[in-house]
Fold:
Amino acid sequence: MDRLAGQVAIVTGGAKGIGQGVCEVFCKHGASVIIWDVLDEGKQTAQSISDVGGNISFRKTDVSNREDVKKAAQEAFDQHGKIDILINNAGIIRDRSFMKMEDEEWDAVININLTGIYNATKAVLPFMREQKYGRIVSASSINGVLGAFGQTNYAASKAGIIGFTKALAKEVGKHGITANAIAPGFIETDMTASMPQGVVQMAIHNIPVKRIGTPEDMAYAYLFLASKEAGFINGHVLHANGGQF
Ligand code: NAP
Structure:
């Protein structure tokens, strides 16, 4: 149960959903976790995990705000003396068919989902390089590979994360750092909660394990790629979708 003992992890978007699941599992496995999220709910999430023994804190942080992310990374280092793991999980959807899509919807999704990963990685990487160790795992999506109606912005951001990860892996590997991505399928979170029941049932029909995924399912995939033992896996995209793709 101590696969991350003594490790320091930053989880973006950790206030709820998949990110919260990652925080819970990482804490169970001995990591010290810092949540970076725009949602104030992150404070309660951190409190409830620390109530059951987790070592976790919340720092309100918008990953699309480059200067603030730099400050947050420095604070994390000052507080813990190192940063071992970065989970680039924060993400949003602003779905609309391409012809109707507003410029703001395109910009928001690219700025948070893709540039947010650039900002967080850029801020954290110098600390990982200095210590010659790091694990960076970023959230792509099944729809970054398959595309989905109404998601040109989201699919572009999630496909971009795959290219980013593969290129970064080639640069950082020699410094003891790995960069990988996870492409979740259909996971039960607020992001998918607004979908009509018919759409959910149809999705389940197309998933060979006949259920939608949970944040905990994803958290164990993140745990594996964030662990020391995954050191020979670099530039990989782990498709975690119950066999749907
Ligand atoms: P979620 O429940 O909406 O949680 C995402 C968290 O990130 C929220 O707390 C959100 O706050 C926060 N966030 C949004 N913008 C941010 C920013 N600029 N800076 C910091 N935090 C920010 O989403 P989820 O379903 O857990 O998804 C987590 C990741 O997995 C996302 O990258 C998503 O694209 C990816 N994913 C999810 C699924 C799925 O089926 N759920 C499938 C494939 C991929 P707000 O609520 O205020 O936006």
User: Anything to note?
Assistant: The pocket of NAP is lined by residues 12-13, 15-19, 36-39, 62-64, 89-92, 112, 116, 139, 141, 184, 186-187, 189-192 (CB under 6 Å). The chain has a mean pLDDT of 98.
